[in-house]
């Protein structure tokens, strides 16, 4: 899943793809590099960020999704926690709603059902504005798993049978809590749904390596390789070319190389 932020303030690439043409150019590059899915986001969810109105978010994402749909058959995701934005994006040609608020809103689930779309339920403690102030858990792995299991059961009870889960790395978690979740990724596979993992360039990598956002590619790829080992289905990344190469090698090691006999 290639990240396409059409925001002025995202933590890594805010303001870089703010026009439709700039966004399309970046999407084309990610698809050429091997992305299977483009995740379009119109609201920053970095720690401390403030919400934007649904109207402003729609104005950012819908033209980009329409333009993408006009020139590619690639799968498109809308990264939003607002049901009205999801509805507009799905109408414009998106296939999947990536919801940091865990598909908690009935209106969001109704929008996904109405469009016969897919969804991702992510775990977050608090809101983007407050989530990193004092995250606390008695058992982060058990609590995140229980939350995602409940969200998945709710969605399925309403006829949503294409829902993935995301443990929400960096969304209301300390460094140690993020690492605990990454050590226990197979636990989330046990929920019986596809697992999405988003670690790309995040703060815990910067903390471990003492590096700024634009120098966290190798740290990100380490987590991508481990995700393949642990059965994760989708990795959400900024650096698609590097991730595709990492996944191909890691997948060959874990599941057996395909093709020739010599390495």
- Could you state the order of secondary-structure elements as H and E? EHEHEHEHEHEHHEHHEH
Q: Count of helical segments?
A: 10
Provide the residue-averaged pLDDT: 92
Give the terminus-to-terminus CA distance: 28 Å
Helix content: 40-55%
The total beta strand count reads 8
Low-confidence segments:
259-263
Major sheet, described briefly? 6 strands, parallel
What fraction strand? Answer: 5-15%
Q: Strand order, biggest sheet?
A: 1-2-3-4-5-6
Radius of gyration: 18 Å
> Which class do the helix and strand fractions yield?
alpha/beta
Shape: globular
What does this structure look like?
The chain is α/β, with parallel strands linked by helices and 263 residues long. The chain has helices spanning 20-32, 54-71, 83-92, 106-114, 140-157, 175-183, 185-189, 203-209, 217-229, 240-255; strands at 2-5, 37-41, 75-79, 96-99, 118-122, 163-166, 196-197, 234-235. The strands form 2 sheets. A 6-stranded parallel beta sheet has the order 1-2-3-4-5-6, with helices on one face. Strands 7-8 form a two-stranded parallel sheet.
Write the layout of secondary structure elements.
Elements: E1 2-5, H1 20-32, E2 37-41, H2 54-71, E3 75-79, H3 83-92, E4 96-99, H4 106-114, E5 118-122, H5 140-157, E6 163-166, H6 175-183, H7 185-189, E7 196-197, H8 203-209, H9 217-229, E8 234-235, H10 240-255
Parallel strand pairs: 1-2, 2-3, 3-4, 4-5, 5-6, 7-8
């Amino acid at each position: 899943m290639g990240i396409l932020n059409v925001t002025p303030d995202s933590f890594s690439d805010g303001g870089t793809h703010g026009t439709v043409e700039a966004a399309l150019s970046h999407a084309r590059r990610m698809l050429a590099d091997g992305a299977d899915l483009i995740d379009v986001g119109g609201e920053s969810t970095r720690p401390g960020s403030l919400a934007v109105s649904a109207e402003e978010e729609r104005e950012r994402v819908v033209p980009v999704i329409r333009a993408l749909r006009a020139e590619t058959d690639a799968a498109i995701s809308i990264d939003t926690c607002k049901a009205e934005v999801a509805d507009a994006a799905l109408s414009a040609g998106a296939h999947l709603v990536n919801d940091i608020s865990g598909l908690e809103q009935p209106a969001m689930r109704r929008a996904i059902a109405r469009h016969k779309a897919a969804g991702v339920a992510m775990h977050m403690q608090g809101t983007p504005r407050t989530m990193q102030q004092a995250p606390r858990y008695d058992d982060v792995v058990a609590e995140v798993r229980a939350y995602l299991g409940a969200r998945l059961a709710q969605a399925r009870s309403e006829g949503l049978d294409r829902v993935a889960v995301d443990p929400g790395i960096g969304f209301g978690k300390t460094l140690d809590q993020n690492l605990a979740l990454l050590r226990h990724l197979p636990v989330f596979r046990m929920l019986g749904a596809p697992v999405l993992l988003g670690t790309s360039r995040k703060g815990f990598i910067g903390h471990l390596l003492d590096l700024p956002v634009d120098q966290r590619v190798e740290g990100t790829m380490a987590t991508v390789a481990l995700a393949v080992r642990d059965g994760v289905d989708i990795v959400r990344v900024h650096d698609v070319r590097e991730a595709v190469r990492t996944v191909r090698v890691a997948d060959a090691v874990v599941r057996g190389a395909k093709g020739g006999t010599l390495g």
